[in-house]
Amino acid sequence: MAMRYLLGVDGGGSKTFAIITNEEGTICGTGLGGCGNHQLHGIDHAITQIKRAVQEALVNANLSREEITFAQFGLAGADRPYDYGILRPALARLGFAHWDVVCDTMEGLRTGSADHVGVVLVCGSGTNAMGRKADGTMVQIGGFGYLYGDRAGGQFLAQEAFHRAIRSYESREIPSLLPDLVAKRLGMGAIQEVIDSYLDREIYHVPLELSRVLFEGEQCGDQLATEILATMGKELGLAACAVIRRLGDLDHAAIPIVLTGSVLQKGRSEHLYQALTAQVQADYPQARFVIPDIEPVFGAIMLAMDQLQIPVTQTMLELFIESGDRTR
Hints:
Helix content is 46%, strand content 17%. The strands form two sheets. A five-stranded mixed β-sheet has the order 3-2-1-4-5, with helices on both faces. By secondary structure, the protein is of the alpha/beta class. It is globular, with a radius of gyration of 21 Å. It has 13 helices and ten strands. Helix 4 (104-112) crosses helix 12, helix 5 packs antiparallel against helix 9 (223-247) and helix 6 crosses helix 8 (212-219). The longest helix is centred in the last third of the chain and has 25 residues, at 223-247.
């Protein structure tokens, strides 16, 4: 029988990754594009970036679209039926005979749950929480920004870092390293210079990278930075508990809570993690927490394998972990 090839695509707010493997899990080609979230810059931009990543992967793998047995798309912004009504017709134009699209949260859950059951918390530039039961029932909490109840994600942290740094500088908060860290990160000498510059230029948004100063502050023992990270950890815990309650409780002896996204997987804040786990285990002491070593795009490959009833072996998982650097 001819070798089968699978395409996995992970489309996020800043980057889109595409990867092609064969049915044995061997990587054949990879591709990179820009923002794949249609909610941020529109469907035409998102599809252009997805197509760019896919085409690069196909060229690197020396394969045609017709040779792809199954294509699995995992996209940020695939949240509601309205979104799928936009995404499905656009993705259909890419020309794959057999394909599916899910929210990128499902990629994350698949990388940390062998049976694709449990709760996944996503905390990258934004945030999302979703749960899935064995019968396929799914519940989503958040994912639509501060106005709709979210108080987590890298962009939220960046805003909090700026906001709280100014308050500390003006003595409306406890003394902190944040004013100096924020000024340095923005390439200025002092926080007052930052304030004057932003007001003069009428700037009302801060760059995502400003979130990093909180992790720097935490490492230096800064109380205010630690407090902000712990507060967000509690918020993520509240989201996980809400998902479990709305699912009607998961019939698992130990509910897996899969933690994905750059803030959770790469930031690794001790105080954030402690606050998150304490919040969940106060209501669900049986919960266990999983931080996957596998990049989300391999979650799309694993979902494609599920579609084709290809068992995901331990050897494959080890290969995906070792190959993670290729998708960063």
